[in-house]
Amino acid sequence: MAKLPILIAPDPTLKTAARPVETVDDRVRQLLDDMLETMYDAPGIGLAGPQVGALERVVVIDAAEKGAPPQPHKLVNPEIIWHGEELATHEEGCLSLPDIFAEISRPGHVRLRYLDENGAEQILDADGLLATVVQHEIDHLNGVLFVDHLSNLKRNMLMKKLSKQMQKSGKPRYAAATA
Ligand code: NI
User: Fold this and answer.
1) Which of 70, 74, 150, 159 is most solvent-facing, going by the fewest CB within 10 Å?
2) Domains along the chain?
3) How far is the CA of 25 from the centre of ligand 1 (A)?
4) Which residue pairs, CB below 8 angstroms and at least 24 apart, start in 27-30?
């Protein structure tokens, strides 16, 4: 396994839609393993291909509660096939937007179709934090960041804060669970 460099906004790759994976082979399994290692190391609770420069529809997530056993998810070509009517609001952060947080409302319950690391089709029902992270990561596959759900004014303010922080410290620091 190997740790991969995480791209930081405004890197244009983060605004580019990723292409579907055609075959889940050893190369894709290696990428998923490397992404999981990178995510745990950051530390984060989700990571999508474009965040490590891979414009492919691959996502890793572990939204297990602190102290609970790890619950790694490796998702290839994930697709939301149903979502509930009710919205849930969580404070979101992102490994590509270090130390930037905002409350975002999304459907509180989603059903997902994806390929597992053996290429088999799976269905996942997600609610709570997992539902938020799944939607945050699928946004990444479509070139969308969580700040894109905010008003222009709020987004510009947060992006300025990020740019100042990066100039000052030169490297990202992660204060809380981010995705
Ligand atoms: Ni993110």
Assistant:
1) 70
2) 5-176 (3.90.45.10)
3) 25
4) 28/56, 28/58, 28/76, 28/117, 29/117
User: 164-168: long-range contacts (C-beta < 8 A, 24 or more apart)?
Assistant: 165/98, 165/99, 166/8, 166/98
- Per-residue model confidence as pLDDT tens for the chain (179 residues): 799 999 999 999 999 999 999 999 999 999 999 999 999 999 999 999 999 999 999 999 999 998 899 999 999 999 999 999 999 999 999 999 999 999 999 999 999 999 999 999 999 999 999 999 999 999 999 999 999 999 999 999 999 999 998 888 777 777 666 77
> How far does residue 144's CA lie from ligand 1's centre (Å)?
9
Query: Is 22 a catalytic site residue?
Result: no
- Tell me the residue type at 64: A
